[in-house]
Design a protein that fits this description.
eight-stranded mixed β-sheet, alpha/beta, about 400 residues, Spore Coat Polysaccharide Biosynthesis Protein SpsA, Chain A, 13 helices
Length: about 400
């Protein structure tokens, strides 16, 4: 068993070193272009779709931030998805201020179906999707438009920035969002962007029509649409100098449900596109294997953790019981001695490299929250925040196979 675990540890270390090396290689090869903005050589008409369900607290500010855009917008369509609060009333009250604001009141049918209805009536060449609790920066649209001069580009996405960052839990998510954005940008250099987040993404309308719009059965319609566009040969682009802020969960329970929904949506995508595994372009040779590998390593690591915990607990119980019976010491100095080994040293080195990589990302991204981060925050993020994810995956798998899941 010891040899088996050694091979497992070495496998984990190989994967960690591989992806760390990949990201560093992509960064140093492309660092001069990391913050480039694509030049606009053609004017595109843009329709903005805002699906909204019970968003009375945020809808007005979202609409204002959209109309503050430096890029002219053809229309902004609020898709009021059967809200039970004053979302529709507030949106309608702003139509006098913004003449090209349209409000569609419809029965509740979910975000994906609302977007599909919006696509049918949208008049723009490009369709921007903005969540009703998100706020695009003034140059967010302008800094993405230039990507569409390449007719193979199907979607472009910005840097999603957490809006609330006052408390400790929110700042952990700021670190997470920075790392995600940085690595996603790097993956764009090998055409491996696997998601265009809901807070803001701009799609080529003809591309959305080609894939039949958004999948109404998927919990994460943005991930599924990105995979579908990838399958059809469309490129996905990202600009770090285009940004939109979004409200991240304050309560752990809300954060947990959000992450569980993301996981279930990812599982749905794996199931839907599994036939392309190792076959269909970057979807089959990188994105699918990347997701499956994450799932496998997370579950394997959790299994090993519980195996070691249970086996050592049983051993300690039996040893203690025997020691009490025969009158020998329960604890000796040897119990506090950790035998150094190559695996111990390599594990420490990998952890240090991971910490340095996280600090490097925060520094490169120039996020002001870096000034509020301290060593404890980053260590907590690496040691505890990330280690919770395999447990969430277990819960996600349970709900996925049982079928007891819903969007909210």
């Amino acid at each position: 068993m010891v040899q088996f675990l050694t091979f497992i540890y070495l496998g984990y270390m190989f994967v960690a070193m591989y992806f760390l090396s990949l990201f560093l290689l992509l960064y140093f090869k492309n660092k001069e272009h990391l913050f480039e903005i694509p030049q606009i050589t053609k004017k595109y008409s843009v329709s903005v779709l805002v699906p909204a369900y019970n968003e009375e607290d945020t809808i007005a500010n979202t609409i204002k931030s959209i109309f503050d855009s430096k890029y002219p917008l053809k229309e902004v369509i609020i898709l009021n998805d059967g809200s039970k609060d004053n979302t529709g009333k507030i949106a309608n009250s702003l139509k006098k201020r913004y003449p090209n604001l349209k409000v569609i009141n419809k029965p509740n049918s979910g975000k994906a179906d609302s977007l599909n209805q919006g696509i049918k009536i949208a008049k723009g060449e490009l369709i921007a999707v903005v969540d009703a609790d998100s706020y695009p920066a003034k140059d967010a649209f302008k800094n993405l438009i230039g990507f569409f001069d390449d007719k193979q580009v199907g979607v472009a996405t910005p840097f999603i920035v957490p809006r609330n960052r006052a408390i400790f839990f929110e700042r952990l998510q700021v670190v997470e969002y920075n790392v995600i954005a940085f690595t996603r940008k790097l993956l764009g250099y090998v055409d491996a962007i696997y998601v265009t987040p809901g807070p803001l993404a701009i799609y080529r309308k003809s591309a959305l029509q080609k894939i039949g719009g958004f999948d109404t059965k998927n919990m994460t319609e943005d991930i599924e649409a990105t995979w579908h566009l990838t399958k059809e040969g469309y490129k996905r682009k990202m600009c770090l100098l285009s940004s939109a802020t979004t409200t991240v969960p304050v309560k752990i329970s809300v954060w947990y449900r959000q992450r569980r929904r993301w996981n279930i949506g990812g599982l749905q995508c794996i199931s839907k596109y599994k036939k392309y595994f190792l076959r269909k372009g970057m979807l089959g040779v990188f994105i699918l294997p990347f997701f499956v590998l994450q799932l496998f390593l997370g579950l394997l690591g959790l299994s090993i953790f519980f195996y070691l915990l249970i086996s050592r607990s049983i051993s300690r119980y039996l040893f203690t019981k025997y020691s009490v019976q025969v009158g020998t010491p329960i604890l000796t100095l040897e119990d506090f001695y950790i035998t150094p080994s190559f695996l111990n040293y390599l594990g420490v080195v990998l952890f240090i490299l991971g910490a340095l990589f996280t600090v490097m990302v925060l520094w490169i991204m120039k996020d002001s929250v870096l000034k509020k981060q301290n060593t404890f925050n980053i260590l907590f993020y690496l040691l505890f925040y990330l280690t919770v994810y395999p447990f969430i995956m277990i819960a996600s798998l349970y709900h996925y196979f049982k079928g007891t899941w819903k969007w909210r």
